[in-house]
Amino acid sequence: MPVAASRAGAALALLVVVGCLPWLARRDPAYTVLRSRYAEREATPEALAAVRAELGLDDGPLGALRTWLGELAHGDLGTSWVSGAAVGPSVWSATLTSLSLMGFALVVAAVVALALALPALRGAVAGRGRRGGGAAAAALTAVPEFVAGLVLLLLGAVWLRWLPPYGWEGPSSAVLPALALGLPAGGLLGGLVASAIVDAAAEPWATTWRLAGARRRTLAVALLRRSAPALVGQVALVVVGLTGGAVAVEQIFAVPGLGRLMLGAAAAQDLPTLRSSMLVLLVVAGAIGLLAQLLRRGLLAGATRGAALSAAPPEASRGRAPAARAALVLGLLALAAVIVGGLGRDPYAAVHGRLAPPSGALPFGADASGRDLLARVAHGALSTVGTGLAVTALALVVGVAAGCLPRAVVGPVEAANAAPPVLVGLVAVGLAGPSTSTAAMAVLLVAWAPLAAHAAALVEELRAQPHVAMLPALGVGRGGALVRHVLPAVVPAVGRHAALRLPGVVLALAALGFLGVGSPPPSPEWGRVLAEGAPYLERAPWAVLAPAGALMLLAVLATAAAALAPGPWTTKARPLLRPGLRGRGQVRA
Amino acid sequence: MKPPTEPRRPDPRRPLPRSARVATAGVAAALGCSLLAGCFAGSDEPTARSDGRISVAMLLPPRSGLSPLSDDAFKLSRWSTAETLVRLDAEGTPGPFLATSWERTAPTAWRFEIRPGVTFHDGSELDATAVVGALTEAAGASPLPRVLDGVELSARAVDDDTVEVATATPDPLLPQRLSSPQLAVLAPGAYDGEAVDPVGTGTGPFELTSVDGTSGATLDRYADYWGTPAKASGIDVSFVPDGTARAAALRTGRADVVEAVPVGQAATLDDDLVVEVPMPRTNTLYLNNAKGPFRDPAVRAAARAAIDRARLVDQVYEGRADEAAGLLGPALPWAAALREDDAYTAALAQRSRPARVDGVRITLATFTDRSELPEVAVQLQQQLEAAGFVVEQDVREYQFIESDALAGAFDAFILSRATVLDSGDPVAYLQSDFGCEGSFNIAQVCRPAIDRAITAAAAAEAGPERQRLVMAAEAAVLAGDTVVPLLHERVLQGEGTGVEGALRDPRERELIDADTVAR
User: Fold this and answer.
1) How far apart are alpha carbons A98 and A101 in whole angstroms?
2) A39 min Cα distance to partner chain B (Å)
3) I need a labelling partner for B466 at 20 to 30 A (CA). Which of A341, A422, B39, B510 fits?
4) Chain A hits for B33, Cβ within 8 Å
């Protein structure tokens, strides 16, 4: 029941925010609606007054909300402020399109994730439960969807001529967008699955099974099933993200989906369209979240009933992870080389040839304005990595803190995950003004959600375990149990997850630049350098390769560092158990 | 590691509990449904080009359900489905279209003879009542269509095929105004609902048969067209916002005609696939004449002197633009010759001498909607800093920066401005951008000399005299270095190898007509 209340509350809060958007974002909807009808019509006071009267904007936010709820009760979604057409049909067809695109993308993501997790599973079954660098998964998550989309467009439609370059006219037109969406999503999920399998394999029961000669297949299935409870929630979030947040891919392949519809509606402040799309997406998010919850409860129940999960974090130190160490050292060396090589050069001087190819004098080539890309990547490193790390760290703190209330946080997580970034950006700009830190705030408002979901799943799981469940009986208060027994096991896993999300944060920070937030051009943030280079992908691949390579390097570094970070802290926390219990080490087993 | 005394573990052989099975089934069902092809927009796979239809990839999806009382009007005219009373020729001179002739019966009144034998696509006949209905609808629309800004227009039927159009004040440009696609005449049935519906209600050689939201539209040849019937059997339109995808459509033959190929993509295309059309659009550096360093005309002159137009055209536009000699570009063919005029050169000779600037801080703003503009800003920053300015950029999407620009928040603003939007005449642009009362006065300029020159041009009849006065107004604007015109854009239109007769219209009103074919 608290979960349902949390869902309803968060959904209502989000819909109220949407309904108050013009007032929160401090932009006159009469202006934005006029602009979307006539791009170059002067916004004279008469024209604005005409629009205002037509839309009934004089009622204020509460009046508008009341009208909408009244109409909604009659099953009427209203008419669009921009087109004057009924909202229902356009939202419905966009939702169907987005759901089918999501379905295709999910298939791709599942295949990619399994392929990425296979080595970890193999190793775990064979008893080599070492955490690799996860370099492949990390690199995939660092590929922005707009770059993946453009590469696939060129490859599949122009060079191979196998598939149509755009449109939404049959399964063949879904292949390229599904790949563009599914590859990064698969990378993310694959990284999470691999990490969870390694954790599971380090648990005592896995060793016992292996020593007892359990069949490899049996052990593999058991490991997957053991990892699943913490992951289904993440899959659910990804599914919703693919449904409502595929803006870049929908734009490239001209897919008439929900992401584009909501982007346009948010920018034009077409409240009826925005509210209805948001409502639909929240319903989808709620339904998928509910499915995930049932699935997870089932999986957990299977483990907790009769035979509790034996997830007490292992005593044995983690495998030494030579791969991660190598990745870290090599990555640091490469990054240092780029920075040392580029810091002495001028990142702003547009003095080289337009899109000059790499050469001895210009190792990374030049961008479309004739600027030295090596210099730009090097000079952008500090601010890009710094801001990205700060936002990710804050998201981690907020996420873990929120995850300690696993039931109450369900609704806010789903709402934050479903809310379109442009909406969050608009509200942030309205509240904080267009400053450098506004972009960070807007990204933080969204980035904490998946981490909180992960933390919540782990917290719930840990609380179900005997060694935690019995703590109250031993006189350990809730707070003590949380600090000494739950958090030490949660933070490292969620931390590794956060590292996997770092490139996404960097890209999101740059993507909000169109609102005039974040560091202004021509400063060489990697996200901006990448976006500037993307249109020239075919003519000058180096304009994309330099920043994308840097971003991948950052992703690999971050995941490798997270893999090498101290393992579960329970080994240190254990002596805090009451002495009388120490002889009975079984409490943790 | 000590083996656990009591092995506690998940049992993989135990079937999943019921709730988990239900959930799994739910996921599977959702996935299965989503994979059904029924979720796709059109059921037709793209067809081969042997059917005589023309496939068009357009830049912007319709925003207002293709209502002519919005920017979508230009789409209707580009597809030759909606028609107007008057049509402009290449020179901008009005000629007959749905009206066969017209005369000015009073300073504020004009009479138009309606073309006989014209039927709408829904079968009804074009008569004076239908024309009056359409014009009255536009004149009463909220907000008013752009072309009618400041014009109080009314229409009445004199007889079955004569319409009298009146304006509150004398309007020498009324016929030009009536050529705007926003004043297209649709069948009376189009205006019945809440939104104007152009499906099956036009008069052109192609009938709009279906609109698929923001993804596409279908048009078929209209057999009863009043002129020569269309050679092509229909038009299939897709709206493709991404430039790389539009270029790819041209290369793969997916589309026959492609709107607005980005400059950066043109180099990847065969030269014979791309046609350059000069646009009545000027990239101009608007300087803030009211506050900040650019209050001083000598500092404005310094900015003017700092700019290297050739490098802009070469570096950003790859040579596919024209250096600006003034506000009005080659799309208005008469403008260049009038700059040789003695009065014009004399006016420009009075310009201030550039001041020496050293460390003068300015903000330079522009927007991202036209992808070349941020690159122009990079080049301008470089050029201005070389001259001694210290530049700080502010770049956002247009709708997030327009109000700040109009309020004078920036010292300099790079704007790509259409100079003859609706009537083919530049006076409205001069008024709104450089008049004291101008509604688009980003330069924050108010000089009596400019106002006088514009007022004189606005009152003149269309023709050489009006053109001379327009150029005198341009000279008045440039004499004070109010703004710095940078370059005139060209639009790159993509045409597949089998395409013949696609129209290359600088005003972006025409694209496909009855004579266009694609093989």
Assistant:
1) 5
2) 7
3) B510
4) 99, 103
